[in-house]
Amino acid sequence: MTDVVFIEALEIDALIGIYDWERRVRQTLSFDIEMEFDNRIPAAADDIALTLNYKAVSKRLIEYVQSTGFGLVETLAERCAEIILNEFDVRRVRLKLSKPGAVRGARAVGVRIERSRDP
Ligand SMILES: Nc1nc2c(c(=O)[nH]1)N=C([C@H](O)[C@@H](O)CO)CN2
């Protein structure tokens, strides 16, 4: 990836996990996202309409993640990457999904994936 729009430490509460107690309480997840784009295009016109709007992506993910209830962080990460690639003008995305406090002794655990529109 060369130029990216990033979203760092986006915190969203969701129902997630494989254990009984995790099906009853929401946990705070944290997302770090990098989305490939050409910085020169919006910069040339200084125009929000020509860029990848990180606020719009964040709002869409917040709306989606809050409505989910997956067992695995893997599943949620894949669905979020699909939303970004399918609904926004993004060809490649890196997404790290962290579940803070899920493992005693670790600050966070989770997955990091990289997906693109073209195989
Ligand atoms: N690779 C994964 N391992 C584990 C997951 C997961 O989603 N992906 N989930 C759990 C539990 O839900 C855990 O987060 C509870 O502390 C365990 N391992």
UniProtKB/TrEMBL annotation:
EC category: lyase
InterPro entries: Dihydroneopterin_aldolase, FolB_dom, GTP-CH-I_C/QueF
SMART domains in the cross-refs: FolB
Pathway(s) it belongs to: Cofactor biosynthesis; tetrahydrofolate biosynthesis; 2-amino-4-hydroxy-6-hydroxymethyl-7,8-dihydropteridine diphosphate from 7,8-dihydroneopterin triphosphate: step 3/4
EC id: 4.1.2.25
Catalytic activity: 7,8-dihydroneopterin = 6-hydroxymethyl-7,8-dihydropterin + glycolaldehyde
Listed Pfam families: FolB (PF02152)
Record GO terms (molecular function): dihydroneopterin aldolase activity
Keywords tagged on the record: Folate biosynthesis, Lyase
Record-annotated Dihydroneopterin aldolase/epimerase domain positions: 5-115
Cited function: Catalyzes the conversion of 7,8-dihydroneopterin to 6-hydroxymethyl-7,8-dihydropterin.
NCBIfam families documented for this protein: folB (TIGR00525), folB_dom (TIGR00526)
Family that this chain belongs to: Belongs to the DHNA family.
Record protein name field: 7,8-dihydroneopterin aldolase
Species per Swiss-Prot/TrEMBL record: Lysobacter soyae
Lineage: Bacteria, Pseudomonadati, Pseudomonadota, Gammaproteobacteria, Lysobacterales
